[in-house]
Amino acid sequence: MDKALEVPVWEKYTLTIEEAARYFRIGEKKMRQLTAENPTADYILMNGNRIQIKRRLFEQYIDAASAV
After folding, report:
1. CATH number, domain containing residue 40
2. How far apart are CA 65 and CA 68, in angstroms?
């Protein structure tokens, strides 16, 4: 993909596990664990067999959490 056409991560609606881990400063293993333990969470969107994280909804989840 052309670098000029890439959407900045903070403007994306959904993030991959890897992008979400970097953006929220949470390890990829922990992100995968959170999605595995909460498969019906509102912040998860399945794209085929790929997990996408709805950025704003995960931000709300983090805001309400006292620990991750």
Report:
1. 3.90.105.50
2. 7
Would you give per-residue pLDDT tens digits along the chain (68 residues)?
Answer: 567 678 999 999 999 999 999 999 999 999 999 999 999 999 999 999 999 999 999 999 999 998 88
Count CB neighbours of 33 within 10 A: 13
Cα 52–Cα 25–Cα 53 angle in degrees, nearest 5 = 10
Residue 15 tokens read as 């993030």
User: Which residue type, as a one-letter code, is found at position 68?
Assistant: V
The whole-model pTM stands at 0.86
- Per the structure, the count of domains in the chain is 1
Question: Which residue range(s) make up the domain with 11?
Answer: 3-64
